[in-house]
Amino acid sequence: MELAEKQDEKNRRIKLIEEKLKGKECKLTPQRRATLDVLLENQSKHLSTEEIYGLVKEKFPDVGLATIYRTLQLFDDFDIIKKLNFGDGCYRYELSEDQKHQHHHLICIKCGKVLEFDDDFLDELEQKIEIGNDFKVVDHVVKFLGYCKECQQTYDK
């Protein structure tokens, strides 16, 4: 994706999020916008609250950690972001996606690296669950624990 296309996509997402907030009678304040920008600029990094705070603080030195916590909670409440628990003692965040299911995560248990993959092979299983249990599945969360390519090399030795 070219730089102009990336900027257009970023602007489109910001506009959608701003409309979602307005629909809930909330504003996209400068601090919320800075938090959103950090999330958009670091989409593949699964940042923690403290990491987001550090990056927002570069733009807004007076911002408090409590403001970031409240902003992330608001974004989570309005399904703008997903709060993720990778078992490392802190929540991490990523922007919600427009599609039905989120991507899945591969988590290295040695270095903590998080990789994403998009194959959604659980549709058939979801259908069986729905039919066999009279249960409507709306989403699922899958995380695989193992060793990344780099850690496999040291693990195998």
Structural notes for this entry:
With 157 residues, this protein is α+β, with helices and mostly antiparallel strands. It folds into two domains: 1-98, Winged helix-like DNA-binding domain superfamily/Winged helix DNA-binding domain (Arc Repressor Mutant, subunit A); 100-157, Dna Ligase, domain 1, CATH 3.30.1490.190. Helix content is 48%, strand content 16%. It has six helices and six strands, in the order H-H-E-H-H-E-E-E-E-H-E-H. The protein has helices spanning 3-23, 30-41, 49-59, 65-77, 123-133, 149-155; strands at residues 47-48, 81-85, 91-95, 104-108, 114-117, 143-146. The strands form two sheets. The chain has a three-stranded antiparallel beta sheet with strand order 1-3-2. Strands 5-4-6 form a three-stranded mixed beta sheet, with no helix packed on it. A hairpin with a 5-residue loop joins strand 4 (104-108) and strand 5. Helix 2 crosses helix 3 and helix 3 packs across helix 4 (65-77). The chain starts with a helix and ends with a helix. 13% of the residues are buried. The mean pLDDT is 86.
